[in-house]
C-alpha cells in the first residue's frame, strides 16, 4: 500500500508529500493564526489519507463533520452523550477501527475540554488487542493543553493536559499518532509541542510565536520574519515525514468544507432605507422581549454526568407510563411480594457479566421491560433510584445482614453512582472477612477492561478516605475499609 499522500506543491509546482507511515511514528505540529489556512491543511491531510489509515478528529467548532458527507467518518455529537457513553464510544472506536469526528460545538468551553479529555483517555486506555494505528487530530490544541491556567477549573485543566500528554508522549506504542494544531505556540504546553518531529508553520505575527516556530524549523532567528509574510494557505514544512530541509508548501484543494461559510468574504449590504431598517428592528419588540423572558433557562448539555440524555428521558417517561398502568393492579399484590420481585429482576440483570458495560438508560429500559414481564409495578423507581438499587444488586448486598448493610451504605452515601458498585463490593467482602476482590471482579462492576482505570479507581477511593490500599513486594494487593468496623460495632 502506498503510504505517501500529496498535501500541496512547492513554488515551482513540484508536489510535496507526507509519508503517513512515518507520520504515525513521529507526530505532527501545525501552527497558524486564524485565517492562515490551518483547518484547510488538516482537512487536506485527512481527505488524502482517509483510505490509508483510521482517523479520529477532536473538533471543537464542528468544522470537520462534513467529512462524513464524502468519506466513511462517523460523527459523534459530544453534547448528546454522558461521560460513560463517551468513554464507551472511544473504546468501540478503537475496537472497530472506525474513523470518527468528535463534534464538541454543542458544549461550552469547559465541557468541551472535559469531554475531549475523557474521550482521549479512553482511547489511550483501550485494551492492547485494539492498539491499531490511528491518526488523532486535535484542532485548537491550545484549549486542551494550555501552557498556563485560564478561566477553566484546575481539575479540568489537569485531566485534559494529562490526556494530551499521554497522546503525544506515550501514545505511539499504543498506535496513537497525535496531530495537534494551534493558533499560537506560546499558548500550547511545551511538553505537548516538544513531542512532535514534523512541523507545518503558517502565518503568525507575534514575535514570540515567530521565534519559537523558527527554532523548531531550524532557522536562524533573523529568518523568522518570513513567517509573518506567508500567504494564506502557505506553510513552512519540516520533518522526517515531509522533508529534511525547510520548504514552502502551498496546500492543495479539498472536497469537503465547513458546514457554513466562514464569513471572511464580502456580501452586498441590504438596500433598505434607514427608516425601514429601524422599523424592522423595533417591530413587536415588546412581545419578543416578553417571549424571551418567559423561556426556561437552557439546561446544561447532556455530556454533564448528572444530566439525562434523550434515551434516559425516554426511559423516565416509560417508567411514568408503567407506574400509571400498574396503579390499578398494585393493590392486588402484597407489598412484600412486590419488593421481592423487583429485587429478583435486579439480581437477574446484575448477573449478566456485560451489564456494567451498557448505558444506564439501556439498563433502565431493560428493567422496565422485565418488570412488565413479571407483572411487577415499577411505581416509585425512577432513573436515580434504579442506579443505586442496581449497584446494590451488582455488589451482592442482599448477602449481608441489615446492620452491616446500613453501615456500608452510610459510608457510601457521598459516592457518585458510577463508583458505588465497586466500593460496595469491597466493603461487603471486607465485612464478611472474604478479603479483597480481584481486578476482574472490580472491572466487571466498573464497566471497564483497563487495569489502569481500576488502579485510578482505587487511588480515588483512597484519597477520599474510604479505603486503604496496601501492596507487598510480590505485587499482592490488599484493601481495607477503615471506617467500617466502628459503624458495625
UniProtKB/TrEMBL annotation:
Question: Which residue numbers delimit the Helicase HerA central domain?
Answer: 12-79
- InterPro entries per UniProt: ATPase_Atu1862_pred (IPR014588), HerA-like (IPR008571), HerA_central (IPR002789), P-loop_NTPase (IPR027417)
Keywords from the named record: ATP-binding, Nucleotide-binding
Single annotated GO MF: ATP binding
Q: What is this protein called?
A: ATP-binding protein
* Organism superkingdom: Bacteria
Amino acid at each position: 500500500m502506498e503510504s505517501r499522500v500529496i498535501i500541496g506543491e512547492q513554488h515551482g509546482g513540484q508536489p510535496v508529500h507526507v509519508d503517513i507511515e512515518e507520520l504515525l511514528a513521529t507526530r505532527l505540529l501545525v501552527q497558524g493564526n486564524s485565517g492562515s489556512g490551518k483547518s484547510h491543511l488538516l482537512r487536506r491531510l485527512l481527505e488524502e489519507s482517509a483510505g490509508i489509515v483510521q482517523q479520529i478528529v477532536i473538533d471543537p467548532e464542528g468544522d470537520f463533520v462534513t467529512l462524513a458527507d464524502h468519506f466513511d467518518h462517523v460523527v459523534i455529537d459530544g453534547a448528546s452523550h454522558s461521560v460513560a457513553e463517551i468513554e464507551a464510544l472511544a473504546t468501540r472506536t478503537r475496537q472497530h477501527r472506525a474513523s470518527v469526528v468528535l463534534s464538541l460545538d454543542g458544549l461550552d468551553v469547559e465541557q468541551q475540554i472535559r469531554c475531549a479529555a475523557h474521550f482521549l483517555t479512553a482511547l489511550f486506555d483501550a485494551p492492547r488487542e485494539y492498539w491499531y494505528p490511528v491518526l488523532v487530530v486535535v484542532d485548537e490544541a491550545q484549549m486542551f493543553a494550555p501552557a498556563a491556567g485560564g478561566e477553566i477549573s484546575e481539575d479540568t485543566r489537569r485531566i485534559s493536559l494529562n490526556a494530551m500528554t499521554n497522546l503525544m508522549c506515550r501514545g505511539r506504542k499504543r498506535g496513537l499518532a497525535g496531530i495537534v494544531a494551534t493558533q499560537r505556540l506560546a499558548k500550547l504546553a511545551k511538553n505537548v509541542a516538544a513531542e512532535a518531529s514534523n512541523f507545518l508553520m503558517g502565518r503568525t505575527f507575534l514575535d514570540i510565536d515567530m521565534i519559537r516556530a523558527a527554532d523548531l524549523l531550524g532557522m536562524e532567528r533573523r529568518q523568522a520574519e518570513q513567517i509573518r509574510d506567508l500567504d494564506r494557505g502557505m506553510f513552512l514544512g519540516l520533518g522526517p515525514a515531509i522533508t529534511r530541509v525547510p520548504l514552502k508548501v502551498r496546500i492543495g484543494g479539498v472536497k469537503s468544507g465547513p458546514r457554513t461559510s466562514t464569513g471572511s468574504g464580502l456580501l452586498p449590504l441590504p438596500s433598505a432605507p434607514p427608516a425601514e431598517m429601524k422599523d424592522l428592528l423595533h417591530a413587536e419588540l415588546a412581545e419578543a422581549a416578553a417571549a424571551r423572558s418567559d423561556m426556561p433557562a437552557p439546561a446544561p448539555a447532556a455530556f454533564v454526568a448528572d444530566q439525562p440524555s434523550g434515551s434516559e428521558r425516554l426511559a423516565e417517561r416509560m417508567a411514568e407510563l408503567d407506574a400509571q398502568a400498574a396503579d390499578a393492579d398494585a393493590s392486588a399484590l402484597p407489598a412484600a411480594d412486590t419488593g421481592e420481585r423487583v429485587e429478583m429482576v435486579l439480581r437477574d440483570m446484575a448477573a449478566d457479566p456485560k451489564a456494567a458495560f451498557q448505558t444506564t438508560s439501556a439498563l433502565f429500559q431493560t428493567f422496565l421491560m422485565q418488570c412488565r414481564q413479571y407483572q411487577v409495578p415499577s411505581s416509585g423507581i425512577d432513573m436515580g433510584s434504579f442506579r443505586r438499587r442496581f449497584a446494590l444488586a451488582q455488589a451482592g448486598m442482599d448477602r449481608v445482614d441489615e446492620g452491616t448493610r446500613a453501615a456500608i451504605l452510610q459510608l457510601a452515601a457521598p459516592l457518585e453512582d458510577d463508583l458505588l458498585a465497586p466500593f460496595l463490593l469491597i466493603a461487603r467482602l471486607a465485612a464478611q472477612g472474604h478479603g479483597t476482590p480481584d481486578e476482574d471482579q472490580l472491572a466487571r462492576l466498573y464497566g471497564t477492561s483497563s487495569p489502569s482505570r481500576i488502579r485510578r479507581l482505587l487511588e480515588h477511593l483512597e484519597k477520599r478516605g474510604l479505603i486503604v490500599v496496601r501492596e507487598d513486594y510480590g505485587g499482592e494487593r490488599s484493601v481495607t475499609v477503615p471506617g467500617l468496623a466502628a459503624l458495625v460495632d
